[in-house]
Design a protein that fits this description.
510 residues; mainly alpha; globular
Length: 510
């Protein structure tokens, strides 16, 4: 590609302006973005919840509808990757660092500051795991499934460019190639940059926490975190150079193996029977309470409403900000699967894995808090070190040093695969959907992502990371809602064409 696209230029300028703003006036950036976050959370929390639930219902409907047998590709296309590699790649891209960062911190936090009821009670313990299931379960994967399915369907079956705007062909036709399409793609890129930057920042914070735990001489500070970002940026650039078939695939497979090893370590070194009982109980509780949780806002309870804004609304915004990145990447590796196979795979397997993950990690943390009085919550509250939850819990299990090293390696590989996958995705979106974007384009976006993560940490730490997700996600919600309409229209037109052809052939045979 010799000429830069309008989307590349617009998204690049917007990102650079934001990065320069954060570098020159971090306090002002934090003030403005925090005000925007509060406004969106207080006035549009209902919109995030309704939108996420509507998307999930739509995706499930497609899986069991007459459209379920349509392939994401030509009728004779076969999947490019094995089922294991496919699951590993979509899982690594879809959740990554967040699972390790929040696996213990979120349930323990909910146990001590519950959405309702008394803190540190059996009720708050059950609600803590259930809401963790909710935040990392069907809803986020439904959002990912929608955008990935739309992209794969139009790219591989209808042979249009692999851009977000191209999925709107049934609605606006050729205007996807004009200013409207460019605006859609620019919003998608901007949301992706800061959605991924949030995860990279979380990764840097937790790697720093782990290194400080291993060696007290390593300070838990913004300087160390910035150094970690620089170091990991170099590593994921090497992965970018190696390409999707080698770097991302190999690292994704390694991720899933390391994640399972750490999971089994917690399961068998911790309170095994308690954790399996908890998993079984919470699966039923999650299914039972899913409708209520999906629409819960607590308008008559200011404290409960604030909890929902801080957690559920934040997560829905984070998943929406991540969705153009994750959706594009999942679409790229999902060619050849039917809509039904795709949706069941994307919803069922990662949701089950995430549920098991939060039961094992969060359940262990809560068990130690309830029955061993180990002070994990106190460690988290001292200096607001959310990232210390994992390492504080590991200190109460056998072989804490070995397990901590394994956790740090896992976080680092998640960091690399998230950034690596995102450079590929943003490269696609800013080169008119090129299947293999030029290396220099991917390197540019890799550096911008790392710079954005560094600026967010510099301007406000974890709060700034969360704020960036919520603000950047808002305009993309509208794109997702119209994408549902466009995808349904495209599928309906295809089915009508098939019926029409069959009718014509039948009439000719007569």
């Amino acid at each position: 590609m010799k000429k830069l696209t309008p989307v590349f230029i617009a998204a690049f300028i917007l990102s650079i302006v934001f990065i320069v703003w954060g570098a020159i006036a971090p306090a002002n950036l934090e003030k403005v973005s925090s005000a925007a976050q509060v406004f969106l959370q207080e006035n549009f929390g209902w919109f995030y919840l309704l939108s996420a639930s509507a998307i999930l219902i739509f995706v499930i409907y497609l899986a069991f509808s007459k459209y379920g047998n349509i392939k994401l590709g030509k009728d004779d296309d076969e999947p490019e990757y094995s089922t294991f590699s496919w699951f590993a790649m979509l899982f690594s891209a879809g959740m990554g660092i967040g699972l390790v960062f929040w696996g213990i911190a979120e349930p323990v936090s909910h146990y001590n500051i519950p959405p309702f009821g008394d803190p540190e009670s059996a009720e708050s313990a059950e609600a803590a795991i259930r809401f963790s299931f909710f935040h990392w379960g069907l809803h986020p994967w439904g959002i990912y499934a929608l955008i990935a399915m739309a992209l794969a369907y139009f790219k591989f079956r209808k042979e249009v460019p692999g851009t977000i705007s191209a999925t709107f062909r049934p609605l606006i036709g050729k205007r996807t190639e004009g200013p409207i399409g460019k605006v859609i793609d620019t919003i998608a890129v901007f949301a992706t940059v800061f959605g991924v930057a949030t995860s990279l920042g979380l990764g840097a914070i937790q790697i720093n926490g782990g290194l400080s735990y291993l060696n007290g001489n390593i300070p838990d500070s913004i300087g160390t975190q910035l150094a970690i970002i620089v170091g990991v940026t170099i590593l994921f650039m090497l992965s970018v150079i190696s390409g999707i078939g080698r770097g991302i695939k190999w690292l994704s497979n390694s991720n899933i193996v390391l994640a399972i090893l750490l999971l089994f370590f917690f399961l068998f070194m911790g309170p095994t029977s308690f954790l399996m009982d908890l998993f079984t109980n919470t699966i039923g509780s999650y299914i039972e309470h899913l409708p209520r949780m999906s629409f819960r806002l607590s308008p008559f309870d200011e404290e409960g409403g604030g909890w929902i804004q801080d957690w559920t609304v934040f997560y829905w915004a984070w998943w929406i900000a991540w969705s153009p990145f994750v959706g594009t990447f999942i679409a790229r590796v999902s060619k050849g699967r039917t809509i039904r196979q795709f949706i069941i795979g994307v919803l069922a397997v990662p949701t089950t894995f995430c549920a098991f993950w939060f039961t094992i990690f969060g359940g262990t943390g809560i068990y130690f808090e309830m029955f061993k009085n180990t002070g994990i919550w106190n460690a988290m509250e001292q200096g607001d070190y959310t990232e210390i939850a994992l390492f504080s819990t590991l200190s109460h299990l056998p072989l804490p040093t070995i397990a901590t090293v394994l956790a740090i390696v896992l976080i680092s590989t998640f960091f690399i695969t998230s950034a690596d996958s995102a450079t590929f995705v943003i490269g696609m979106q800013t080169t008119n959907g090129m299947f293999n974007p030029p290396l220099r384009i991917k390197i540019v976006w890799g550096l911008i992502q790392s710079a954005a993560a560094a600026v967010l940490l510099w301007s406000g730490g974890l709060n700034a990371l969360q704020t960036a997700s919520i603000v950047s996600a808002f305009p993309f919600v509208f794109i997702l809602l119209f994408m549902m309409v466009s995808l349904h229209k495209g599928l309906s037109e295809e089915v009508r064409e098939k019926v029409k052809k069959k009718t014509n052939l039948s009439n000719k045979a007569r």
